[in-house]
Amino acid sequence: MSLSAAEVNKIAWLARLAIDDDKVDAYARDLSQILGFVEQLGSVDTSRVAPMAHPLDEAQRLRPDTVTEADQRALFQAHAPLVEAGLYLVPKVIE
């Protein structure tokens, strides 16, 4: 797949990127090479390759699902200007 300079400019506009006009052709060439490589990867027969969740066959270390910090709600709400029924009250900002 080959990108034109107009397509590169459109992509840059959509991505809100400012690119120099003198570099558009170089970007078009580089992006076309990347797209060509992706097409090449898509043509590889992977039907006999088993899907895997991780490239390394290792178990993930997980931490225990336990509470490690104490509940400090009362402490935090003691510093709030207005609290009612365990909720912070804030002034109305939208009419």
- The average pLDDT value, as a whole number, equals 91
Helix content: 25-40%
| Major sheet size, sense and barrel closure | 2 strands, antiparallel
Oligomer: single chain
Radius of gyration: 27 Å
* H-E string: HHHEE
Instruction: Give the strand line-up of the largest sheet.
Output: 1-2
% residues in beta strands: under 5%
Low-confidence stretches: none
Report how far apart the termini are.
53 Å
Overall body shape: flat
Given helix and strand content, the structural type is mainly alpha
Describe what this molecule looks like in 3D.
The chain is mainly alpha-helical and about 100 residues long. It has helices spanning about 5-15, 25-40, 75-80; strands at about 85, 85-90. Helix content is about 35%, strand content about 5%. A two-stranded antiparallel sheet has the order 1-2. The longest helix is centred in the middle third of the chain and has 19 residues, at about 25-40. The model has no long low-confidence stretch (mean pLDDT about 90).
Layout of SSEs?
Layout: H1 5-14, H2 24-42, H3 73-78, E1 83-84, E2 87-88
Antiparallel strand pairs: 1-2
Helix pairs in contact: 1-2
Defining traits:
95 residues; mainly alpha; two-stranded antiparallel ribbon
In short:
By secondary structure, this protein is mainly α. It has three helices and two strands, in the order αααββ.
